[in-house]
TrEMBL record:
Residues 117-345 form the DNA methylase N-4/N-6 domain. One of its GO terms (cellular component) is cytoplasm. This is site-specific DNA-methyltransferase (adenine-specific). Keywords: Methyltransferase, S-adenosyl-L-methionine, Transferase.
């Protein structure tokens, strides 16, 4: 196709035909030398070296075809009164977004964030997982993951470039394994002429014993600006002069009889930064693996942004970028596909005194503000819709002690709230008063925007309430369409899940596309969580689609033992959907001094065993709770209430609160 248009466009067809007619073939110079046949030039392809690999997509396809996963507000810390400069946003709120960054970035791009972000820092996982497999399989996997990882990052870099302001910059933090491939890719995306530095982060630490090669003690950070004019605050990040330089200046001043000046702010910063890794006692330490020192971000943020600029980190991990941006009075957006990352970052910001308001959001559903007052929803239709959404059996409607249940999920009754205003714990108490302990377990459905219960599990007297929330956007969609609920659900699935053209899913822009493969759907619409700590370093999620926030699925019973040295939670029974067993959980997060409102993770427990290296390079095995069937919370900092979040493989959460004696 390309050749065809080349000949058409350049009007040389005739000339070439003439030559061929006359000589019977093309003369050698025409074939090899002539400008005429510089196809690349004619097609506007430049001659810079490029990285070629299987699966490399066209840039336009990435920008145009990536689906955007709108944000849904999950919780808010503080009320912002600061006007937003983003069109369509009234007040500015710093944002912590849970979801795959590709579709979250696309959403930002589609929603007035184009050219709004001054600085981006990313520190993606390094995709070195295959190092652990052996032989040929490893070689093959390495290649595969090499290409897959490169494209994974390239797609994101392309979107990030669109988000950068004209005078913006990006810093891409990598290591020796993938760094050089990504440098070539980043040159392609941002232009070689905009490459500013390869910063070497040099860290001295004694760990890691090697015998046959040198110890690796540096990271690589590639710094690109979007254009040739960009924010760079040279004076804000100067470095101290060496003693030698200062002495020399002093000596020269004496011998020349005139003052040899040194800049009082220090010398111009160089591209090798010696910054120590976070030691076990450091105040900033969060225990999140791969956490980077705040000092690195401090330099980057000071150099490449000004107060009130927006700083983005799309692989936010423990929230280093957001925490430093917060302290330096920048606006920030952090994205991560791991629930642990979101909770760790949330705690980190909450711990900053006088932090600005921020919102935690899920990327996977969308929100239209203030619409609930404008729409009227037929009560019965709404209830049917809610039941269908969560696969409740509507044929099993029942009235018990004056409470109208809309159906059953498994063996338990489901109550759908359809109040006008917010729904509080008090409302559940009223239900319990009527039921008088007649039912042991009740499932509740409320709409996300009415939620003042702030939990998805609550035990009142002897009744356990499992609370499930319908994403607000779905209700709005429902209200707008207000027709057969199955049509709406199909519509949502089509629009938010199936636009992704991958694997055995068909692109359902085509109305006649066959039914969806349910198994594939399960895989696609949930982000799977890591099960062991060491996976955080290496695993990258690449998920696109629509995610339901809470489902009915998790049921857990536990035994709490208060001991001299803390609390032991023994996990008795785990049931997630129809799967039984503790191995369906990925992580348990604990806030050992829960204030009843904002969850601040203090302890994290992983499902699977892992090997951890201490600062001296000694290895020790950490037992996962799948084997031990219990977790131990030590007494340091233990309060009267503890909050526990159980996460399943897909990031569904069950929150429980326990009071200690
Ligand atoms: C190396 S860590 C970042 C550490 C961070 N710089 C810090 O100081 O804590 C990489 C993070 O990328 C996240 N991640 C991997 N794939 C992702 C994706 N597709 N979207 C969003 N986050 C992703 C992982 O969950 C992990 O937290």
């Amino acid at each position: 196709m390309a050749k065809q248009s080349f000949f058409d466009d350049y009007k040389i067809k005739k000339e070439v035909l003439g030559v061929v007619k006359k000589y019977g073939k093309l003369p050698e110079d025409f074939r090899f030398d002539s400008e005429l046949f510089d196809l690349n030039k004619a097609l506007g392809v430049d001659k810079t070296a490029k990285l070629l690999y299987d699966g490399k997509k066209d840039k336009r396809t990435i920008i145009d075809k990536t689906i955007s996963a709108p944000f849904q507000e999950i919780r808010k810390f503080g009320e912002s009164k600061e006007k937003s400069e983003i069109e369509g946003e009234k007040y500015w709120n710093n944002k912590l977004i849970y979801g795959d960054n590709l579709q979250a970035l696309k959403y930002l791009l589609d929603n007035d964030y184009k050219e709004q972000i001054k600085l981006i820092y990313i520190d993606p996982p390094f995709a070195t997982q295959s190092d652990f497999s052996k032989g040929e399989v490893k070689a093959y996997k390495d290649k595969l993951e090499g290409a897959e990882f490169t494209e994974f990052l390239r797609e994101r870099l392309i979107l990030m470039k669109e988000l950068l302001t004209k005078d913006g910059s990006i810093y891409v933090h990598l290591d020796q394994k993938m760094g050089h491939y990504i440098k070539v890719i980043a040159d392609e995306v941002f232009g070689k002429e905009n490459f500013r530095n390869e910063i070497i982060w040099w860290y001295k630490d004694p760990s890691g014993q090697t015998k046959t090669f040198y110890k690796q003690k540096h990271g690589n950070i590639f710094f690109y600006s979007k254009n040739n004019k960009y924010t760079f605050n040279l004076d804000d990040v100067r470095m101290p002069y060496s003693e030698g330089t200062l002495k020399q200046a002093e000596a020269r001043t004496k011998s020349f009889g005139r003052i040899v000046k040194v800049n009082p702010l220090g010398k111009i910063r160089e591209d090798v930064w010696e910054i120590s890794i976070i030691n076990s006692q450091a105040k900033e330490r969060t225990d999140y693996p791969t956490q980077k020192p705040e000092k690195i971000l401090e330099v980057i943020i000071k150099a490449s942004s000004n107060k009130n600029d927006i700083v983005l980190d799309a692989f936010v991990g423990s929230g280093t970028t957001c925490a430093v941006a917060e302290k330096l009075n920048r606006k920030w957006i952090g994205i991560d596909a791991g629930k642990l990352a979101i909770y760790t970052s949330q705690k980190r910001i909450l711990d900053i005194e006088n932090h600005k308001p921020f919102i935690v959001m899920n990327s996977g559903v969308y929100e239209i503000k203030d619409i609930d007052r404008q729409v009227k929803i037929d009560e019965n239709l709404y209830k049917d819709f809610a039941c269908d959404l969560f696969q409740v059996d509507r044929n099993k409607k029942e009235t018990i002690n004056g409470v109208d249940f809309s159906g059953k999920y498994g063996n338990n009754y489901v109550y759908v709230f359809r109040n006008k205003g917010k729904i509080f714990r008090q409302d559940l108490k009223k239900l319990e008063d009527k039921l008088k302990g007649k039912l042991k377990r009740v499932y509740i459905i409320i709409s996300q925007n009415q939620d003042k219960v702030y939990t998805n599990y609550l035990k009142i007297n002897n009744t356990e309430f499992y609370i499930h929330k319908i994403p607000y956007s779905l209700i709005v969609q429902f209200a707008i369409e207000n027709k057969d609920s199955s049509l709406i659900i199909n519509h949502l699935r089509k629009n938010y899940i199936l636009k992704v053209n991958r694997g055995n899913l068909k692109n359902t822009d085509d109305e006649n596309a066959p039914e969806i493969d349910k198994k594939a759907l399960e895989k696609i619409n949930k982000i799977s969580q890591v099960k062991k700590k060491s996976d955080i370093e290496t695993k990258f999620s690449n998920i696109a689609g629509f995610d339901f926030v809470n489902t009915f699925e998790i049921e857990i019973s536990e035994k709490i033992k208060e001991k001299k040295d803390g609390v032991e939670i023994g996990i008795d029974k785990v049931k997630i959907g129809d799967k039984e067993g503790i191995n369906n959980l990925s992580m348990i997060l604990v806030d050992k001094n829960y204030n009843g409102k904002s969850f601040k993770v203090s302890d994290t427990f992983f499902a699977e065993d892992d090997i951890e290296e201490d600062e001296e390079g000694n290895k020790k095995e950490i037992k996962g709770f799948v084997k031990t069937k219990k977790i131990n919370i030590d007494k340091k900092g233990l309060g009267k209430e503890i909050g526990v979040i159980y996460l399943d493989d897909f990031g569904n959460e069950l929150f429980k609160e326990f009071s200690l004696k």
